[in-house]
Amino acid sequence: MAQQIPISPEARADGPAGPDGTHAIAPDVAYQRLTLVNVIFVGPPGAGDRGWVLIDAGILGSRTAIERAATARFGEGARPSAILLTHGHFDHVGVLEDLAMAWDAPVWAHPLEKPYLDGSASYPRPDPRVGGGLFSLISPLFPTKPVDVGERLHLLPQDGSVPPLPGWRWLHTPGHSVGHVSFWRPVDRLLVAGDAFVTTAQESVYAVALQEPELHGPPRYLTLDWEAAHGSVEALARLRPETAITGHGRPLRGPGLREGLDALARDFVIVAVPRDGRYVETPARAEDGSAYRRA
């Protein structure tokens, strides 16, 4: 079983779901939990058409839930100005093609994720050897094939800006995926961490159902480079975030979040890295091409 950094319940950053089915974590930021994964809505309620941004695009079958939440939160017919991706794993792009087409929305991602988003390369195979629970064991069944939003795909600029979200920055946080990014708003120190770290043991069905607040490294069965993943957690801990929402689990805030991140960064090799595993022994990296398989 994966180890964890326990977090005080007082560090939880979310309240009950609102009438739109989302949980607010800031006046203009809310998340929706979709069985296995979170999607994030950025924009004030009632923002209207093109007045908001979606971060990540859920799992297969979640289109209706996302569209209903968007309508309730932003107004009838309110399309996003963009869809931002932390990375392109199956549980973050499950309905990306459908939503991008229905909303005629541009998609933004890191250049190293491009092959997974233009149909040209598949992710390396998941690794069931990493342990921790049922999701690890069944991970070879998870899709690795790319989606194709090539006509709408835009690459995040090298200067760290996020064109659809003025005031936000993107941070390259590789390890879980070669082009994984996190999004950071300095004014209120709000972090959208994707799967650079998570707040539930995503390998375990029981932990995912329970959603107790705790800090973990990235989901083990899909993480390609543990040295890079450690560096990413260290970089995010140095930001001293006030609030963090991850791809899996509840959002956290305050001293409990920062103390937990410090502990995760310090003890990452013990807490997060599996004892065995395909990518523990041989990382899959962009520079040698091992992170990409022919689609």
TrEMBL record:
Residues 36-248 form the Metallo-beta-lactamase domain. CDD domains: yflN-like_MBL-fold. Residues 1-24 are annotated as: Disordered. It comes from the Bacteria. InterPro entries: Metallo-B-lactamas, NDM-1-like, RibonucZ/Hydroxyglut_hydro. This is Beta-lactamase domain protein. It comes from Methylobacterium nodulans (strain LMG 21967 / CNCM I-2342 / ORS 2060).
